[in-house]
Amino acid sequence: ETGVTQSPTHLIKTRGQQVTLRCSSQSGHNTVSWYQQALGQGPQFIFQYYREEENGRGNFPPRFSGLQFPNYSSELNVNALELDDSALYLCASSAPGNTEAFFGQGTRLTVV
Amino acid sequence: QKEVEQDPGPLSVPEGAIVSLNCTYSNSAFQYFMWYRQYSRKGPELLMYTYSSGNKEDGRFTAQVDKSSKYISLFIRDSQPSDSATYLCAMTYSGGSNYKLTFGKGTLLTVNP
Fold first, then answer.
1. What are the pLDDT digits (tens) for B70-106?
2. Contact partners, residue A108, CB within 8 Å, separation at least 6
3. Do B43 and A42 touch (CB under 8 A)?
């Protein structure tokens, strides 16, 4: 059984650019959540996808958007990157009706 | 007031010590409580998961939840240098259509050989 995998592991972008981060959920998990973790902070909920639809959103602007695919993998897109978007982006997957969330290793995004 | 408060430490202990990590929270709707371990530059790893009040033990780890005080704890017995990491508490509640986790800031633990 494979765990949650994210790509890429590291990324450097310029302010104003756009970025796409990818996540493959753990086998059998149909719910994917995305979190942003700034240095020295706990992860902050961005949004969750269930059955290819957004199923809850945290306090993040619309330039943060996402997708979930039929195989339950997911993408996080961030437009018009700002310096404050520099963080570790974490993807977590959950089994149907289960609150236990399992995280990937994260994508470290640096905006310069 | 933040929904979840966690002392960021850092906490430094000698090998073999008993470690106590704690979080307080303000939202009485929280019912599911988790502890994650996060090594530097890695994703969080689920250590303990508990529902409602009570204790749960798994090897050297014990998770304790006191809903009346809105206080949760993680105890690590016979701590090892490999336990050196950041420990994050997280919680969520049922009743909504999604189970977003609310995290504490994390406590940085160093276990010295």
1. 999 999 999 999 999 999 999 998 755 567 899 999 9
2. A9, A10, A11, A87, A88, A89, B41
3. no
